[in-house]
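[job 0417] fold request received: Phosphoribosylamine--glycine ligase
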Amino acid sequence: MKILIVGSGGREHTLAWKAAQSDLVTEIIVAPGNVGIKHEPKCRLAKVSAEDVSGLRDLAQAEKVDLTVVGPEAPLVEGLVDQFEEAGLKVFGPRGQAAALEGSKVFTKRLMAKYGIPTGEFEVFDDFHSAEAYLKSIRGPIVVKADGLAAGKGVFVCRDRDEAMAALYVTMKERAFGAAGDRVLIEECLEGEEASFIALTDGRHVLPLASSQDHKAIFDNDLGPNTGGMGAYSPAPVVTREVHDRIMSEVMIPTVRAMENEGIPYLGFLYAGLMIKDGIPRVLEFNARMGDPEAQPLLFRMRSDIVQLMMAAMEGRLGDTSIDWIPEDAVCVVMASGGYPGPYEKGKPITGIEDADALEGVKVFHAGTGDGSNGFVTAGGRVLGVTARALGIAEAIAKAYQAVEKIRWESVHYRRDIGKKALNRV
Ligand code: AMP
Ligand code: GLY
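[job 0417] inference complete; emitting structure tokens
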């Protein structure tokens, strides 16, 4: 089989590395990919942007690709899957309407309210003045969210009304996220510990992956602004057996059923971002794809063939499919450019990647890297995802940081506390 993977981050490097291990796969094209992916077996890059849906369709047709897998959300929400299917191409992911689970927070909140899926209380506003009036009527912490896609930046967790007013102003008056912020959600602020719960679904059956946890804030102890994710580990001990069962029966299965019932069946990776308190899960958001950096530790622990799993989903066979995991913990530490998620410099020469990769049970996944005259250079905010696997979370953390310490560039930044919450629970 010839596979096309759409995207250019650490998640896509991980998917390509994992797909290359499948006996079904002879060739992998990644569009646009990153320079780390070029060095993986069976892989090459194509210069087509992840947002150029018709360019990707032309590429898949010209290359006679047998299966396309989409990493990021934007092309899914744009209807990549619909366009590919119309052209007779096989693609793993939700159609545009179903990807609204990520593309419209209002759609998703209303769906959850209709079907009794646990989530925080919320109100929806299309105009600034009524949103402002509502904020004046409340006190205490509150969350303001742009309805549409805002590259992870459209969510403001506000300590008080003043912060909420400022968030509302940025979103609706300054239109910092464009049309995505023309409608806002004002939402109850939930407390607890976050976890990521990702499943494969064929529209009927839900096959859960292992649990994981992201670290969204830029600095240790969850301080500073949110990022795309500064590290992740799997499994997440906050998701006990009982919590897992509740997530499946109260969130994942009802959501897939709800979508089927609405006449917009959902096929693909379904990612629930959850807040867990006293063993009770509530939904913060859904994503229509794999997480980044959750994909790194998850796929690094997966023994099963990911391509076989996606084929089973596309053929509606997930009901009698299971996933085999390596019974170890995995940790991914993201190494970023100093300044990220704000402005940062690019082109810094990176040393030590080979030494880190040579450690047993370690894999360095690339995200924002480029080719310099003398090896890899930095070319993005999140640069590398240094991923390690070991028996026990403490050992996996130690190994990941042992690898991280071998890698250097001028003004590198990474969190020193990835996995600490899991350690506190074991
Ligand atoms: P989202 O993109 O909706 O997941 O929001 C990004 C981050 O904002 C989440 O990972 C949480 O850390 C935080 N967040 C979102 N919604 C809420 C909420 N209702 N209560 C508390 N924190 C939230
Ligand atoms: N790691 C968070 C996300 O992929 O949205």
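[job 0417] notes: The pocket of adenosine monophosphate (ligand 1) is lined by residues 120, 143, 155, 157, 187-190, 194, 216, 226, 273, 284-285 (CB under 6 Å). The chain has four domains: 2-93, 121-188, 193-320, 329-423.
[job 0417] exit 0
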